[in-house]
Design goal:
138 residues; alpha/beta; Rossmann fold; 5-stranded parallel beta sheet
Length: 138
């Protein structure tokens, strides 16, 4: 698997998690990806948007329940600004309403807390793969 997009830059991953302990555990677990990447971890959606404006990311890992703007609002904001990163939403608040929002926003993946770090790494590894293009024969 090649984590570098075709234009030669290293994949950039942004983690937004307001619990710094969980954020550090995720950061350490992602070392298991075994591919080159740049990693930035922040504690709020607003801080994440500031980093995003400086240099956009390829993959966004965000908690749903954040102080201030929540993870879904963050994704909507990023997409409204013209960006379309691969997205993993993490939540302790699984509901049919949230799953509907996830579906409507075409969020690539979501996991509910608690989760196994190995599962999270597997999901992120999948997000690093280029999307499969579909050709329709007419």
């Amino acid at each position: 698997m090649d984590a570098s997009p075709h234009n030669g830059h290293i994949t950039r991953i942004l983690l937004i998690e307001d619990d710094s302990h969980i954020g550090r555990i995720i950061e350490m677990a992602l070392l298991e990806l075994g591919v080159p990447y740049e990693f930035v971890s922040v504690l709020s959606a607003e801080e994440g948007l500031q980093f995003w404006e400086e240099h956009p990311f390829d993959v966004l890992l965000t908690d749903y329940n954040l102080r201030g703007m929540n993870g879904v609002q963050l994704i909507e904001t990023i997409r409204a600004r013209g960006f379309s990163p691969r997205v993993l939403l993490v939540t302790a608040y699984d509901s049919s309403e949230l799953r509907h929002k996830i579906h409507d926003l075409h969020i690539d993946a979501y996991v509910t807390k608690p989760f196994f770090m190995d599962d999270l790494v597997t999901i992120v590894r999948h997000l690093l793969q280029p999307p499969i293009s579909r050709t329709v024969n007419g």
